[in-house]
Specification:
The structure holds 2 protein chains of 2 kinds. Helices cover 37% and strands 24% of the residues of chain A. Chain A is built from 13 helices and 22 strands. Chain B has 3 helices and 7 strands. A 5-stranded mixed beta sheet of chain B has the order 1-2-4-6-7. In chain B, helix 1 runs parallel beside helix 2 (53-66). Classes of the chains: A alpha+beta, B alpha/beta.
Chain lengths: 601, 101
């Protein structure tokens, strides 16, 4: 039997191999310990027997696998009760409501009966990591006096008990009042390292300690990170929780892994490399792992300098109560923060989606001899695609753009782009110059946030039936006419890449049956279930087919969307997808009474 | 723990305790020491301060070994606290209790 942790206070922890001899040794050691604590002689016999019975069961039912684990005992002496905990690795059992004696001639089956008969409280806690038998027994009133001492009361012992009870009551009151005070404060103010620090400083004062260290579990660091601490503690690096084994590990890690309090003192010093040594040497203290609903939240350590005076059981109890209460507060705060953050994100996306919806034209112009159709969809709540069709005196400026980025920032830039474009109708008929101006106007803002915009401007002049196209790093427009289908490739860097960029224009004459497709890369980079790309050739084939069928603009839009859906199958769109289609339109020969009432900017 | 054969009685003495570890010894001792003409077993428990349920079980096994011979198990000098255990488990009815010599 090895004595793993012994608290020179009111608790004793023992651990030994899973055999009957070590159980016997533990029962004797516990008897001696209780005797030193002034427990009455009758109680000593009972505890020796109860320890043996509980330990023997743990050994007898351990099996091959369970027998590899030690049997552990913990005993705590309170003013009115003594409590024993025996940890076992057996398959476990249920304590029956009524424990009867076996047949008188049975050679087994009296252990549980004896434990029940000699205790006031018997509980069996089961868990996958091991079980724990908890046995509590009220202390006999006359401590230390032999039964034949003519009933004389040992006044000194009684006084000691009363003193301990008073101390515990006072401490309970102190800890309760502190908990109330701080819970009120935390209701008013958000939990922060500063507020928790204030609280723990008070705890340090209550427990007559010198320093504290609180580490919290941070999944991103896969370990325990200092949340707040006295003095040097703040500079301590994170501790990894993933290192296997406990031997030679820092006390905080050992406490976290074993789920038990860990005491240290001059006689039971920390490992030479333990970070807690930053608080001094020698030091004494207690490390308490904080669990909420079985989940490790953090580890709280309080300690004293330059003395080997450990905390009393009452003080340890207060530390545990405070630590666990703090754990619940921190856990609740974290949950609340997550909810608020999720709400903000949703709200942000709503705003962004709203901005984006408001940017797109609700009605497309109808230039003479042409019709327009458009479609825009987002892979996410908010996309970076943007298009516009702006009617001017001489024609229509078609704009299609893709802001690199998602969410609110991308939507904001799309909004800026739209207002910039709409601010300069004078530049509409010169797309190259327009892009040059836009790049100059937006470069600084885009560069600062490391974003850029690909854009294509195409001015449709219905009189000359000419399309003037310039592009800033955008996919080439497709034109299908009597000569076939071709890509209109124009050079130019995306907006926001280089401050001095030029955007050469191309002039494309449109014959009476010419079709034109402007699009974002989402169209040609569309992927199906087998991860195949739709590709530019498929887009060209569709355009030729639609032109041959002489579809109307709305029908052509539906046709392209059908083609997209057929290709994509049930796969979810991965990118934003936007297109703008220019189709020929045979004007009816009826004379117009009035010029178009459409408002031109 | 030592044994002595006196007439029809097997005497066992020097038991400092009768817990789970010594219970095994007692069972084996009786199994190997009980001769054909032994009817009774006397166990001196005057030194035993500690007895547990395994020890009680071993005593019951001794009882079962002698009962076909119409014999008895006599427990000598049982201490008060240990006797309380017999009373609690109602085994006080099965054994004969004799004062220490």
């Amino acid at each position: 039997m090895s004595l793993l942790t012994s608290t020179p206070g009111r608790t004793l922890h023992l651990s030994g191999p899973c055999d009957l001899h070590s159980v016997r040794t533990a029962a004797k050691a516990i008897r001696n310990f209780l005797e030193q604590q002034g427990v009455a002689a009758d109680d000593l016999d009972a505890w020796e027997l109860v320890t043996a019975e509980a330990g023997n069961n743990a050994v007898e039912y351990a099996g091959t696998e369970g027998g590899l684990h030690p049997v552990e005992f913990g005993i705590e002496v309170g003013p009115t009760h003594v409590e024993l905990r025996v940890h076992d690795h057996t398959p476990g059992f249920e304590i029956p409501a009524a424990i009867d004696l076996p047949d008188p001639l049975s050679e087994h089956g009296r252990g549980l009966f004896l434990m029940r008969s000699l205790s006031d409280h018997l509980r069996y806690l089961r868990s996958p990591d091991g079980n724990c038998l908890v046995i509590r027994r009220r202390r006999a009133a006359t401590t230390g006096s032999p039964p034949d001492a003519q009933g004389s009361v040992n006044e000194a012992a009684l006084e000691a008990t009363l003193q301990a009870m008073t101390e515990e009551l006072a401490a309970c009151y102190e800890s309760l009042s502190a908990i109330f005070r701080f819970s009120t404060e935390f209701n008013r103010n958000a939990i922060s390292p500063a507020s928790v620090d204030r609280w723990l400083r008070e705890l340090v004062a209550i427990l007559e300690a010198d320093w504290y260290l609180l580490r919290l579990v941070r999944p991103e660091a896969a370990g325990l990170v200092v949340y707040c601490a006295s003095g040097n503690g703040l500079t301590l690096p994170a501790l990894s929780l993933e290192t296997p084994g406990v031997e030679g590990r820092p006390a905080e890690i050992r406490a976290a892994h074993s789920r038990r309090d860990l005491w240290f003192s001059k006689s039971e010093p920390l490992e030479p490399t333990d970070p807690l040594r930053t608080f001094g040497d020698p030091i004494a203290g207690l490390t308490h792992p904080i669990f909420v609903s079985g989940e490790l939240i953090g580890v709280l350590t309080l300690g004293r300098h330059l003395q080997d005076l450990p905390f009393t059981a009452v003080q340890a109890n207060i530390l545990q109560t405070f630590g666990d209460f703090l754990g619940i507060l921190l856990r609740n705060a974290a949950i609340q923060e997550q909810q608020v953050r999720a709400m903000l994100v949703t709200h942000e996306l709503d705003i962004a989606a709203g901005i984006q919806r408001s940017l797109l034209p609700t009605q497309l112009p109808e230039p003479p001899g042409f019709r327009l159709a458009s479609h825009s969809q987002s892979a996410h709540e908010v996309g970076g695609d943007f298009f516009d069709a702006i009617e001017t005196k001489n024609g229509v400026l078609l704009v299609i753009a893709d802001v690199m980025g998602k969410g609110v920032p991308a939507a904001m830039f799309a909004a800026i782009l739209r207002s910039q474009i709409r601010a300069r109708p004078d530049l509409a008929s010169q797309p190259g110059d327009f892009l040059d101006w836009l790049n100059t106007a937006l470069f600084r803002d885009l560069d600062r946030v490391e974003m850029f915009v690909t854009a294509q401007l195409a001015f449709l002049d219905p009189k000359t039936r000419e399309l003037r196209i310039a592009a800033a790093g955008h996919c080439p427009a497709l034109v299908a006419d009597a000569q076939g289908v071709r890509e209109i490739v124009t050079e130019g860097l995306p907006l926001g890449i280089a401050v001095e960029s030029t955007y050469p224009e191309k002039r494309v004459p449109l014959d009476p049956n010419a079709w034109c497709l402007l699009y974002t890369d989402g169209l040609i980079e569309l992927r199906n279930r087998d991860d195949d790309l739709l590709g530019i050739d498929a887009a060209k084939r569709w355009l030729v087919g639609a032109a041959a069928e002489k579809l109307t603009a709305p029908d052509a839009r539906v046709s392209l969307l059908r083609r997209i859906r057929e290709f994509q199958g049930p796969a979810y769109p991965r990118d934003d997808l936007t297109f703008l289609l220019v189709t020929p339109h045979a004007e009816k020969k009826t004379p117009r009474r009035k010029p178009s009432a459409r408002h031109a900017i | 723990m030592k044994t002595a054969s006196v007439g029809d009685t097997l005497r066992i003495a020097d038991l400092d305790e009768l817990g789970a570890t010594t219970a095994v010894v007692l069972r084996n001792l009786v199994r190997s020491g009980l001769l054909a003409d032994h009817r009774h077993v006397e166990i001196d428990l005057s030194r035993a301060r500690f007895v547990d349920s395994e020890g009680l079980g071993a005593l019951v096994s001794v009882l079962k070994a002698v009962s076909p011979r119409e014999g008895s198990v006599r427990l000598i000098g049982v201490r008060h606290t240990v006797w309380e255990l017999f009373r609690l488990t109602r085994l006080d009815q099965l054994f004969e209790f004799l004062p220490a010599a």
